Amino acid sequence: MQFLAMAASGDVSNRLFRIDPIVDEKVDAAANAPAVRKLANTMLVDLILSFDDDDVALHVGTTLMGFSFSQAKAAKQLVTAVSRRWMAMSTPVLDEFDELIKTRPSDEPAFQTFLTRHPQLLDPLAHEVWPQPNLFGYREPDFIVKRADGTYMVVEIECPSKTLVTAGGQISASVTHAEQQVADYRRNLVRKYPDIRLHMPDFQEPDCLVVIGLERDLNSNQLQVLHDANQSGNHLRIVGFDWLLERGRTIAANVVQHGVEVSDLRVV
């Protein structure tokens, strides 16, 4: 990890290992090449994403302690790479979620527990999450999510084994029931607006998310039905559990490959 951070910063001159002056000079020169720095940064972020959540601090802390004062650029590169982890789920978490979908598709409590531990799967901007909050004795939603931008979302989860769209091209009864539940939760929150703001600062009318079934099981016509339902929904989106998984993988892949890219574009 230490060498990858140094290589990503473009300065490996202070590395501990040396071979001979000629080889060392070539290594130092190669480390300044943009392609090498980009590859090293990709490998560094990928390595950090591969650690379990409990192990990240240990590995990163040990590496940072190994840097000398003259390696500030490498230390900064490592801290930047670690910060990207907050934008993405780690590889072990995504793999565990995939395994849960495959092996326990009907176990809704297991998904409630897993998403409570890893709420960024529900929304990458999740800042604060209330699992199954008690709302004045009213039926409780599975989650209320406050995003980093201050917006809110009410989430109703079912399980992957349930049907999203019927063979006849209709939104399933399970989805309709979940839609009604999350809409009821939303209406109750809005009705109790002054009281809710005492417990949820800056609360505003929330979006709604229903997570049910698997989108990969749908054919093209069924996917179109789901798309149309989401287009017509008011503050409501319906997604499969595999959609959450694939979004998490996409974010992780983009975080590994890129920083924030700024590009010129002109369309005539």
Could you walk me through the main structural features you see in this protein, from its secondary elements to its overall organization?
It is a single chain. The protein is about 55% helix and about 10% strand. The chain has about 270 residues and is an alpha/beta fold. α1 packs antiparallel against α3 (about 35-50), α1 (about 1-10) packs across α5 (about 70-85) and α3 packs across α5. The relative contact order is 0.11. The model has no long low-confidence stretch (mean pLDDT about 80).
Reading the helices and strands in chain order gives HHHHHHHEEEHHEHEH
Structural class: alpha/beta
Strand count? 5
Helical content class: 40-55%
Poorly predicted segments: none
Estimate what percentage of residues fall within beta strands: 5-15%
Rounded mean pLDDT is 81
User: Judging from the principal axes of the Cα atoms, what is the shape?
Assistant: globular
Total of DSSP H or I helical runs spanning 4+ residues: 11
Strand line-up of the largest beta sheet: 1-2-3-4-5
Radius of gyration: 23 Å
Largest sheet: 5 strands, mixed
In a few lines, what is going on in this structure?
The chain is α/β, with parallel strands linked by helices.
What attributes characterize this protein structure?
268 residues, alpha/beta, globular
Layout: helices, strands, pairs:
Blueprint (H helix, E strand, L loop, with lengths): L1 H8 L11 H11 L2 H17 L2 H14 L5 H14 L5 H13 L4 H10 L8 E6 L11 E5 L4 E6 L15 H19 L1 H7 L7 E5 L8 H13 L3 E4 L1 H17 L11
Parallel strand pairs: 3-4, 4-5
Antiparallel strand pairs: 1-2, 2-3
